[in-house]
Amino acid sequence: MDNKKTGNVMALIPVGVFLILYLGTGVYFEYISPGKDRMGFYVISVVVAFSIALVVAFLQNRKKTFEEKIHLCAQGIGDDNIVIMLFIFLMAGAFSGIASKAQGAVSTANLLLSIIPPGFALPGLFIIACLISMAMGTSVGTITVLVPIAEEISRNGNYLLPLCVGTVVGGAMFGDNLSFISDTTIAATKTQGVEMKDKFRTNLRVALPAAILTLIILIVMSFAGKSVNVGNFEYNIFQALPYFIVLILAMLGINVFLVLGLGIILFAIVGAATGTLNYETLFIAMGDGTSGMFETMIVAILVASIGALVRENGGFEAILNLIERHFSGKRGGTWGIVILTVLVDIATANNTIAIVMAAPVAKDITEKYGIDPKKTASLLDTSSCIAQGIIPYGAQLLVAASICGIASINIIPFLFYPFLLAVFTVISIIKD
């Protein structure tokens, strides 16, 4: 009997091993035996956990030789979309590194902060978090930059600190979900074989209404606090300009390699002109940026290898059969993608990893039920960002909480945008 047709639940054991190692260790060291200077979910490296899971996958299916299994892994890693994704990760890392060293991120944030009207602190903070995250492509980086400012707004404006911090986290997740250089966007689009501009347009139909409603709520809440001047911030308009150029070109649908390449060149020129970069620091910054992507790239390679073996052994078909038993038709398949992605993100506490793990099954569901691949890419990114933006042990909330000295769980009631994004995602599925 062909396992790939009938499904084989045992083929999913490597995934279970990963979840037990990573989630189990994370829960233990985060909540049962917490350390003073560490986050529980970073005790065991995700690369180590996936490596052990890959070993388990190799030990399965004795009908295949070791060489045949290596060939299957090579085919999985060599998929066109995986290779493109890896190259984009490299370029996005170089762009992020040089932009940071050239003071682009700081100048962009300060430029936007300096134009917030005194009575518009909360909604202004949300808008800036959205824009900075879209430009930087990282929610954690945005949170690191803006949470100290949120503390000041809380103090001066008589707003609850968790409210101000939650506003930043919500805006950061908006940008993470939509940014063209975010690893979640890269993973979601390239694993489904769709253009970033198409996924962006599909995504925006859900994200924009949630953001607008969040903004309205924050405007109403602003009346409860004092009119507060956010402060005076120094910035260089030329250092911020490349971010806006890259953002506009990406939204126009220009090839992502061209956009990132142009961004790197522009920041190199601006950095040299403003004295923030020289020949030495230019290449150090690019090297640091690409190095920051290595773990994500290795994870993508390991997951592609595990996925190839799990698929060959009938694991994906077992998941599809499970979804088919509980959901039917195109809408049911859509629900299956969302639920699978959310569960994987809750288990891994990393939205990029959740997308990469769920993507092969999502692609099979897409083909089986005739779902638009652009919709699938949007759902992968959106549902993973919803879960990641809410779980108290995710990097976003843990970093935000550690900066301002509060418990991450206290921020959750004020995460208006992630909760509203979930509502509009559900509405979009029901309407289809």
β-strand percent reads: under 5%
Give the count of helical stretches: 21
Structural class: mainly alpha
Count the domains: 1
Order of helices and strands: HHHHHHHHHHHHHHHHHHHHH
Count of beta strands: 0
Gross morphology is globular
Q: What distance separates the N and C termini?
A: 37 Å
Largest sheet: none
Mean pLDDT: 84
Q: Rg from C-alpha positions?
A: 22 Å
Helix percentage: over 70%
Sequence stretches where pLDDT stays below 50 over 5 or more residues? none
Could you explain how this protein is built, in words?
The chain has 432 residues and is mainly α. It has one domain (80-432). Helices cover 77% and strands 0% of the residues. It is built from 21 helices and no strands. Helix 12 packs antiparallel against helix 13 (256-274), helix 17 (329-348) packs parallel to helix 19 (373-388) and helix 18 packs antiparallel against helix 19. The longest helix has 27 residues, at 196-222. The model has no long low-confidence stretch (mean pLDDT 84).
